[in-house]
Amino acid sequence: MDAERARRLAFVARPGSTPLRIARTEGAWLYTEEGQAILDASGGAIVANVGHGRREVAEAYARELERASYLLPPFATESRLRLVERLVQRWLPAGLTRVAFTSGGSESVDAALRIVRAHHLAAGRPGRWKVIGRDLSYHGTTLATLAVGGHTKRRAGFEPWLPELPKAPACYCWRCPLGKTYPSCAVQCADEVEAAILRAGPDTVAAVIAEPIGGSTAGALVPPDEYWPRLAEICRRHGVLLIADEVMTGFGRTGKKFGVDHWGVIPDLLIGGKGLTGGYAPMGAVFAREEVVAPIAAAGQELMFFTYSAHPASCAAADRVLQILEREALVARAATMGEKLGKRLSRLLAHPNVGDVRGRGLLWAVELVADKATRAPFEARARLTEKVVAAGIAQGIFVYPGGVDPARDVITLGPPFTISEQEIEMIGERLERAIESAVARLH
Ligand SMILES: Cc1ncc(COP(=O)(O)O)c(C=O)c1O
After folding, report:
1. Among 42, 139, 209, 247, which residue has the most ligand 1 atoms within 8 Å of its CB, making it the best to mutate?
2. How confident is the model at residue 1 (pLDDT cuts 50, 70, 90)?
3. Which residues face 371 on adjacent strands?
4. 389 C-alpha to ligand 1 centroid (Å)
5. What's the distance, CA 140 to chain centroid?
6. How many angstroms does the Cα of residue 298 sit away from the middle of ligand 1?
7. Which atom of ligand 1 lies nearest, measured to the CA of 211?
8. Within 175-311, where are the H helices?
9. Are 413 and 427 in contact (CB under 8 A)?
């Protein structure tokens, strides 16, 4: 791959910028054509949970493709049935027993939105259609998922196509949108969800959607422990379905199988993606309680599939990735290595421009600011995050850019669960050097 060809064939060509040309991947590492080794500290877009280069997954995928190249999604295949059984028996919170597969996170959220609407329609509640999301959230990039999301940068310009849906404040304790401090705040952000339901009119609300731990929008926003149990209670009281979007947090990323497991909450619907196949195949899923699907089934309706939903080879890849997570006890490892990563990243707080370091398990974020005392961000035109990512690559580390105002500059970290202590040390050193060099270029 020569550089000029890579530039020319990018969908949006950026003058002076060449897409990273990766020749191969292994473990927690990316290798460029020129032989540079880059530590994948974000597992791509927080995806590569079992690490790169697992031959057994590639073999399981290939074997399934040889057996059946493509089948209509509702057909029963051994690979899908096996995967559903594994998920229900070993992975999902108790009670989530219905499983629909798609080709990714956005498609899964989109399907979940249709499911909650279909549920209320079939149950004789046609007035319930609004889905309440939160500020500083991301649920995907289709029009419906942008509408329920609170990622202002990704929504920008598309607003005429996005229905106005109520939003509740984010759990962003470091810059509390309500101007409060935990614990004296009494977790008012949760009560704000109820206030949004009441303002919208409970009889018009179909569901609330939230990420258990905010992903890369504002960077690893961990809510207070009271938040999710209270959210579940509020939804139950108002007959509103609760959707946990675990596309980023699911399958061990935060040190438990699912983010909601930190608080023992069982949502009505849970959405998975990314870690379900660890990047080995494009796949997402919607998991639902029996009671959510029962009225739809009783009304004789179906969930319209996407052509590539439940692709047999993707099912085989997912099943093998879950087996690896189980065999190597990688969820527990995400918890222990996550603590070590958190400790190492906290040392960056000594830097004058590192405002906050936050996260859980192996999902972490570093928020950069111009002034630590006032928490004022750098000017938007400085494009600091972009510069840190570029400087990181020069230093041999890939970090995922995040950040939406007021969390303007955020670096998100989510390495494979197989990350070693030595590699964690490298993440700390290389990220610090990348921040140093990017900030120096601003002056
Ligand atoms: C919480 C959450 N939901 C949905 C999505 C969209 O997933 P995809 O990019 O696979 O469509 C993402 C992607 O980052 C995500 O983090």
Report:
1. 247
2. confident
3. 376
4. 20
5. 9
6. 31
7. 1
8. 188-200, 227-237, 290-298
9. yes
Contact 252, 334 (CB under 8 A): yes
- Please count the other Cβ atoms lying within 10 Å of the Cβ belonging to residue 228: 24
Name the token pair of 60: 């399981």
**What 3-state DSSP class applies to 225?**
coil
pLDDT at residue 19, rounded to an integer: 86
**Residue pLDDT, tens place only, 117-160:** 999 999 999 999 999 999 999 999 999 999 999 999 999 999 99
pLDDT digits (tens, 9 = 90+) for 281-330: 999 999 999 999 999 999 999 999 999 999 999 999 999 999 999 999 99
- Looking at residue 24, its amino acid is R
User: Which residue(s) pair with 40 in the sheet?
Assistant: 398
Ligand 1 in contact with 403 (CB < 6 A)? no
pLDDT of residue 398: 98
What's the one-letter identity of residue 305?
F
What predicted TM-score, i.e. pTM, was given to this entire model?
0.98
DSSP label at residue 302: -
Which whole-number Å values give the CA distances from 377 to 23, 175, 384, 412, in the listed order? 36, 12, 10, 17
Task: Please check whether residue 133 is in contact with residue 139, taking contact to mean a CB–CB distance below 8 angstroms.
Answer: yes
